[in-house]
Amino acid sequence: MTSSFWARRLSAPIFHHVSVAGVALTAASLVALLVVPLLLDNAYYMRIAQQIAFYTIAAIGLNILVGYQGQVSLGHGGLFAVGAYTSALLATRFEVPVWVCIVVGAAFAGLIGALVALPTLRAKGPYLAMVTIAFSVIVYVVAQNWTDLTRGPEGIKNIPGISWFGTEIRQLRTYRPFGDDGLTFGGSVAYFWIVGVAALLVQLFAGNLLAGRWGRTINAVRQSEIASETIGVSVYRWKVGAFALSAVLAGLSGAFFAHQDGYIVSDTFTFNKSVELLVFVILGGARSLFGPLIGATVLVILPEYLKTLASYEWVPVALKPIIEHYLLFYGALLILFLITMPDGMAGALKRLPGLARLLPPVPPPALRPVAALARARGSNGMTRAELVADDVKMYFGGLKAVDGVSLTIDPGRIHGLIGPNGSGKSTIVNCLTGVYRPTGGTVRLGDVAMNALPPHSIAALGVTRTFQNIQLFRDLSVLDNVMMGYHLRMKSGFLGMLFRTRATVEEEERFRQEAMDLLSFLGLASLADTEAQSLPYGLQRLVEIARALALDPHVLILDEPAAGVPAGEIATLSDVIRRIRDAGVTILVIEHHMDLVMGISDHVTALDYGRKIAEGTPEEVQANERVIVAYLGPKDMFALPATEPGVESTPTSNGVVAR
Amino acid sequence: MDPAEIVSTFLRILPQAIVSGVALGSVYALIAQGYYVTFTTTETVNFAQGEFLMVGALTSYTLLVLSGLNFLVALVVVVVLMAVMGVVVERVAIRPLRQLLSVGWILSTVGVSVILRQFAEIYWGREQRRVPSIFGDTPIFIGGTGIFPQEVFVIVASLLTMAALLFFLKRSTFGKALQAVAFNPAAAGLMGINVRQMVVVAYIISSILAGIAGMLVAPIIFAHAEMGALLGLKAFAAAIIGGIENPIGILLVGIGLGIAEFVAAAINASFRDAATFLILILLLAWRPQGLFQRVTAEKV
Amino acid sequence: MTGPSGTPSPTVTTEAPGSSAPVLSVRNLVVHYGQIQALDGVSIDVHPGEIVALIGSNGAGKSTTLRAISGMVRPTSGTILFEGRNVAGLPSHRIVRLGLVHVPEGRQVFANQSVRDNLILGAFQRPEDRQAGSHLLDRELSRFPVLRERQHQLAGTLSGGEQQMLAISRGLMARPKVLLLDEPSMGLAPLLVKQVAETVQQLNAEGVTVLLVEQMATMALSVAHRAYVIQNGRVVVEGPSARVAADPEVVRAYLGGAAGHEQASSKFGADA
C-alpha cells in the first residue's frame, strides 16, 4: 500500500476527512484494547491497566487546560475527588445504577469546575494557582471532616461496581460468553474494557476538538488574549469553557476510580493528587495529543516498578525508603522535565530520527492557489462609513494624553497619523478600537457610537487593527493565524466539532480555501504551513495584516506597521498596503517611519502633546513649520552655531544620503 | 445551648483566641514577608516556602531535642541551612524557568515542595514531634485566660524580625539596592548593582524568614512533615489579600487571618482550615488583583 | 561665555577639543531586539572633553546605541572600545564601574525611594561616596538646589524637570569619565529644556565628556561640538554641529524625503 493510500481522506461520520492512516490507528488501538487483556488475564496487570486508562482521561482534560489553554491548575485533584464522591454516594446511598452515577459524577465535577472558574479566571499566574490550590485544600478538608457525608478517613465502603450483563463486575470471576469450552475472562478484564474504551473515546473526541477550530482558538487565547479579543473571541467564555471541560474529565476519572475497588478514603484526595495529575501532563508532554497517554502510562507503572525494586535483596537498606516514596521521583522528574524537556516525552519521541520516517506526517488536502482576490471587499451589503473621532479627550489622572482631537477618516483612502513620542497617537487609536474608553468626546463609525464598546464588539462592527508589537499566534501556522480571523463567521458549534460532523468539516474546508485566497492576494501562499514565529519579521507583519483582513473589515488600523521591518522590505509593505486600499478597505496608518507613511498616505494628520497641529497632503505636512518644530525643536530658543556659507556636512560611507 | 450560654462561652474563649490568633497570625505574616521580598524583586514566589518552614522546624527538633544544642546555636544552624536551600532553589527551580516568561516556576517550586515533604517523611517519619519551648510549657494565667510564654515569644520575635527586615530594606544600602532591583532592574543595573546577585539575596532572605518562622512555631504546633503545606498556603493567602507589595498590609492581614482562624475554630473546629481559603477564593473572585495591588495595564 | 544674543553658546575653539585619541569608540555596531534589527552598523567616536550629539527621529536607533554601550542590551556584533578596552556584551553593572555612566531615557528614578537615597544608590559601587558626610553627595545635593530642599521626599513626587535633574546628579554620583545622556529633554517644558542644555554645558566645563542623545535636534546641536544623525539604524550625516545644523538632509531624516515638491525653507538653522 503506497503512502498515498494512507493519506486518503474518508467521508464517514465521526471520521470525516480523517486519513486512512488515522482510522487504521484507531481501529488497531481498539482491537489491542480488547485482545491483549485476554492474553494477559492477570488481575494485577489489569488493575494497573485500569489505572492507566482513567488517569489518561484526567490527564487529557488537564492537558487541554494547562497545555493548550495555558492556565495553571493545581486543583484538579479536588475535581477528581468530587467525581469520585458524587458517584460513590449516589451508588451507595441512593442505589442509582452505576452507569448513571458515573455520568452524573463527571457532570457534577464539571459544574463545580465552572462555578470555581467563573469568578476566578480573571486572576492570573500565581494568583490563579493559589485559588486552585485553595479549592483543592477545601475539598480535602470537607472530605476529611464532613464525616456524615463522606465518612472521612474511614471511607465509603462497598461501592457497587458496574454491572456487566446482570452481574456486578467485581463479582465476576470467570465469564464464559461462548459456553464452557470457550474464552473465559474475569471481572477485572471487563472493567478494563469499559474504562479503556471510555479512554479511547475521550482521546478520539479530544483529538477532534483539538485538531479543529476549537483547539485552534484555545491555542490562540493562550498566546495572545488581546489579539484574540480583537478578532472577536470572547476570551473569558473560552477560558471558562476549557476549565469546565477539563473538570468534567477529571470528575469522570474520579468516578471510575471510585468504582474500581469499591472503597474510597479521604486521605487519597490530598493536594498531592493535583500534583500527580500535573506531573502526568508535563512529563507526557504538554500540548501533545498523546502526551497524556504516555505520561499516565509511564507514571502509573513507575511506582509499581519502584516498589518491586525496593524489595530486591541487593538494594542497600538506606536507599529503600527513598525508592518507596514514589512522589519524590514525581517531584524530581517534574523539575527535571520543566528545565530540560519542556515538551515532555512526546516531544522527545517526535524528535527521534527513526520514528519520523516511520510515521511521515499526513499532508493536509491540497488547495487551489488563486492569483487575485475574487470577492470584492466591503461588498457584503453594509454601506461604507467614515470613522470619526469627535473632540476626543483621554485623560489618565492628571495626564492629558489626548486633549480634544478631531479626526475624520474617509472611506476608501489611506490616512496617515504622525507625531513625536508622547503626542497621543497610540492613545487615540486605543480610543478608536475600544481598548480605552474616552474621557470625553465621541468615537463613531458613521452613525454608530463606539465609546462604550469593548474591543471584540468593535471588531464585529468592522474596525480592526494590528499592533505595534506583533500579536501573532506564534505557534500556529500562517494559515491557522489567518483562519482565526474567521472566528466570528464560523458557525459550527461545540457538538459539531466534537463529533466531527460533515457540516463542520466542510465549513472548515471552505474557510481554508478563503484563507488561501487571501494569502495569495498578499503573496504569502507558499508560507501557509510555516509556523508563524519562524518567519522573518517583515513577513510576520504581513501575516498579521492578513489575519486582520480575514475579518473583512471596513477600516483597517495599522499601528506602526514598519516597526522592526528591515529597510529592504519597506517597499513591499507599502505596496501591499496600497493594494489593500485598492481592494476597497479604508486604512489608518500610525507611523514613525516617514518614508513609508508619507509615501502611501492620501491624507496626513500630525499630533503633538495630545492636540492636532497640522493636516493635509503629505507634502503640506512635511513642509509645515509647526510639524518641523514639533520634531526638531524650536529654532528661536537655541543659538545655533554660525554656519560657513556653502559648506555641506560630510556624507558618511555607510549612510544613505541622497534620496 | 441557649443563646446566652453561647455568647458567654464565646466571650470566655475570646481573649485566648486573640492571643493565640495573634501568635499564629504573626507567623503567617513572617512567612508572607518572604513572598513579598521575592515577588517584588523577581515576580516569582517560592511555593515551597511552607516546606522550608517545616524543614526549619524539624531541624530545630533534631538539634534541640536529639542533640541537646543550645537555642542560639540551633538558630544559627537553621539560618545557614535555609540560606543554602534558598540559593539552591533559586538556581535550580527559578532561574532556568524565568526567561521563558512562563509560569513554569510555579510548577517547579511545587515540585520542590513535594520533594522536601517526601524527604522529611523519610528522615523524620510521619509522627508529630514535640519541640519543647525554651520558656517552658506552663501557661501564665491573666484574668482567667491562659497564655503560653512561647506564644508571647512568637509574637515578639516575629515582630522584631519583621522590623529588622523593614529596617534592612529601608535603611541599609543593600536593602535600598534590593528595592531598586524590585522597582526597575534595568535602571538598578546602571547603578552598578548586580541584579542577578540581588535576586539570590532575595531568595536567601525569604528562606531564612521561613526557617525562623519554623523554629518559632514548632513548640506551639507539633513539628511534622505535613505542617508546612497549609501554613505556606495560608501565608500566601495573607500576602495576596494584604497586597503582595505591601509589607505592612501583609502584617495586618496575617494577624487578622490568625485571629479569624481561632475564632472560626472555636465555632467549629473542623472547618478552620477551609475558612481561610474560602475567604481567599471569594476575595480573588471580587478583585482578581488582590486588595491593595495597583493594577498595571499591558502596553500594546 | 555667552554668544551675541546673550544666550550660552558652545565653547568654540579653533581646534576640536578632542584631537587626542577617542575615549569611546563604537565600530559597526549591530543590535537586534529578537528578530528586529535596530542598528545596522553604527560607528561613533567621542573624544575626551567633547560634547557629542546623536540625533534622529523616533525609533531611529539613538537610545538603542546608548543601551548597547551601557550594557542594557547585548549587541549582535561590533565593538565598543572604552579607554581602549572592548566592553561590548558586558553586563551594565560592570560597565558602570569602568566610568561609563548612562542616565537612561525617561529618567527612571526610583520613585518609591527618597531623593537622597536615589543619589546614594548612584554611588552604589563606592562606599566612601555614599556615606552621610561624603563630599560628593554634598556637591550633588547642591548642584540643583531643589534636590537639597526635597532630599527626603520620595523621588516619585518630583516634577518631570526635577526628576531629570535628579537623574543627572545620580549619574554623576558614579564619577563618570563619559556620561551618556538619553533624551533629557523628553516631556519637559521649553524653559526646562533650556536649563538642561545649560547643565550639559556646565558639566562639560567641569571636565565631563558627554554623549548626548536627543530627539530635539535644535537643543542638541546648540550645545554639542560634533553631531551624528541616525536614521533607520545607520548614521546618515556626521560632522561639526555647525555644518550638520545647516544640512537640509537633517530635516529629511526626521520627516521623510520630499516627494518632488519644493519644500519651504527647511534649512532650519539658516536664520540664526
Jot down its keywords:
heterotrimer; A: 659 residues; alpha/beta; ABC transporter involved in vitamin B12 uptake, BtuC; Rossmann fold; 6-stranded mixed beta sheet; 4-stranded antiparallel beta sheet; 13 strands; disordered C terminus; B: mainly alpha; two-stranded antiparallel ribbon; 11 helices; 2 strands
Strand order of the largest sheet of chain A: 8-9-10-5-11-12
In spatial order, strands of the major sheet of chain B run 1-2
Total count of helical runs of at least 4 residues of chain B: 11
Whole-number count of domains of chain A: 3
Uncertain segments of chain B: 294-300
DSSP, total strands of chain A: 13
User: Kindly state the mean pLDDT of chain B as a whole number?
Assistant: 86
Number of domains of chain B: 1
Protein described:
The complex is a heterotrimer of chains A (659), B (300) and C (272). With 659 residues, chain A is of the alpha/beta class. Chain A folds into 3 domains: 1-32, no CATH class; 41-358, Orthogonal Bundle (ABC transporter involved in vitamin B12 uptake, BtuC); 387-632, Rossmann fold (3-Layer(aba) Sandwich). Chain A is built from 27 helices and 13 strands. Chain A has helices at residues 3-7, 20-40, 43-68, 76-93, 98-120, 125-145, 147-150, 187-211, 213-223, 225-231, 235-261, 271-284, 291-310, 320-324, 326-340, 344-350, 353-358, 425-432, 455-461, 478-484, 494-499, 502-521, 537-550, 570-582, 594-600, 618-623, 625-632, and strands at residues 163-164, 167-168, 387-396, 399-409, 414-418, 440-445, 448-449, 463-465, 555-559, 586-590, 603-608, 611-616, 650-651. In chain A, a hairpin with a 2-residue loop joins strand 3 and strand 4 (399-409). In chain A, helix 12 (271-284) runs parallel beside helix 16. The termini of chain A are far apart. Chain B has one domain (3-286): ABC transporter involved in vitamin B12 uptake, BtuC (Orthogonal Bundle), CATH 1.10.3470. Chain B is built from 11 helices and 2 strands; from the N terminus they run H-H-H-H-E-E-H-H-H-H-H-H-H. A two-stranded antiparallel ribbon of chain B has the order 1-2. Chain C has helices spanning 62-70, 92-97, 115-122, 127-130, 135-143, 145-149, 160-172, 190-205, 217-223, 241-245, 249-255; strands at residues 24-33, 36-46, 51-55, 77-82, 85-86, 100-103, 178-182, 209-214, 226-231, 234-240. The radius of gyration of chain C is 19 Å and the shape is globular. The two termini of chain C are 18 Å apart. Classes of the chains: A alpha/beta (659), B mainly alpha (300), C alpha/beta (272). Strand 13 (650-651) of chain A pairs antiparallel with strand 10 of chain C.
